[in-house]
Amino acid sequence: MSQTNNPLPRAVADTYVDDLIALDPVTGTYLGVAESSSRLPDFSPAGLRTRARLARDTLARLDEAERRPGADSDIERRCARLLRERLTAELAVHEAEEGLRAVGNLGMPAHHVREVFTVTPTKTEEDWAAVAERLRAVPAALGGYRESLALGLERKLYGSPRPTATFVDQLTEWSDTDGTGRGWFEDFVATGTESLPEALRAELQEAARTATAAVVELRDWMREVYAPAVEGAPDTVGRERYARWSRYYNGTDLDLDEAYAYGWAEYHRLLGEMKKEAERILPGAATPWVALAHLDEHGKHIEGVDEVRDWLQGLMDQAIEALDGTHFELAERVRRVESRIAPAGSAAAPYYTPPTEDFSRPGRTWLPTMGQTRFPVYDLVSTWYHEGVPGHHLQLAQWAHVAGDLSRYQAVVGMVSANAEGWALYAERLMDELGFLTDPEHRLGYLDAQMMRAVRVIVDIGMHLELEIPADSPFHPGERWTPELAQEFFGAHSSRPADFVESELTRYLTIPGQAIGYKLGERAWLLGRERARERRGAAFDLKAWHMAALSQGSLGLDDLVDELARL
């Protein structure tokens, strides 16, 4: 472990980042640390214990740092609270041995192994040599993950059956992407044809085949050993485990029953708005989703995968031009963001990857096509305000931009999901407030996206806690939630196709407590803005507030409202 003499909390936090990168080269690659490019983490039980030991040691050093003169300054205090809250939440998850049953359709160790290659540098011969070494590390990484799952079986800590089945399907696709026996890793190497050094070509191809063989081995074990062993286990996690995960993803101990009621209140509010907007598109439509189905066939759309990627790039470029100088003040390097198509075998939801610390790799948005080549725009506009500008990109790139004034931990590693997702949903609402969603198609798509986030609160909490559906619900009043009812409810209140709905419900079973952070995080951002406006009165400046808010680095929902209100 690296050392700093008499450190204050920010120095402790940054030392933790250095030590974490040594254990987790995936994090290092996302930060742009060149030395990480050839390695993969240890996902075995021993590797999980080593990371937990680092967290405990860091908390002990933080105890000392908080007693030193200067530790009570705002910037040190904010960093210390974040570091303590995050590491404590992570340790609670570790001590409950959740890592021994980490199976699902996204965010699991195997997904990290594959996805890190999409952000690994591939410009030079040295880069490709590191890629070859990282490919050869895939068997050990997946083997360590399998060792953890096997220990979970031994201890009767079972992953959920439905996410397990989906994961097996994903591994099958990764091992044979086109039906010819060539896997995702061979495809990855093949796409680098232009920059691939001839001297390394055979070595890379062999390393890619080795990585694919490891995927096949994991797939076969999951299918033949793990899936039968967890058959009959519950898909949902119950109140105790859910509360633990909710703390991890939201940075606060939520009143889950109040949050469930809030989800229903938002559902009823949004349904009323959607009905009005749907009437503008298809008068007399029985439901807003009938109008959205009409748009699927007859609304504005983009033909072609390359074309939709370029269209989304243009949408983000236009947003930057319109917002910079009026509602935000953006550094030149923050203005750069790229639109990308997600690799095959991804989950259905679009996502964003932040820039490296030096911005040598820009922030990127990713669209999973799910085999489609025709893309209605009504559900893309507000989604790209969420994923790109002014959503995830402006926040996470700004954090990276001001990292020197904060700490690396606050800017990159210590992200609280509900903070970031709450900002991104706030960004969608902001664009509506600013008049960017006056087109009826775009606005109904925005409301549909908002409804999806309200439904997430309802079904994620409802099915994991097996809560009762309220008497005033139009859907199965008085019954208790199950995953099957949750999928039916989601499908009836979403414009998304059946495969998207299926993927989403599997996601909620995979990472319980994460999906509720969008609406609950948005509520925190709106409340913080309202209190800042009340505090400053006529002197309140929205642009200045936005930039101050985006320059604080990560905060849990415990702290977010209070800190935003002070700005």
UniProtKB/TrEMBL annotation:
Under Pfam families, the record lists: DUF885 (PF05960)
Superkingdom assignment: Bacteria
Q: Cite the InterPro entries for this sequence.
A: DUF885
Annotated PANTHER family? DUF885 DOMAIN-CONTAINING PROTEIN, GLR0591 PROTEIN
- The entry's protein name is DUF885 domain-containing protein
Q: What are the top taxonomic ranks of the organism?
A: Bacteria, Bacillati, Actinomycetota, Actinomycetes, Kitasatosporales
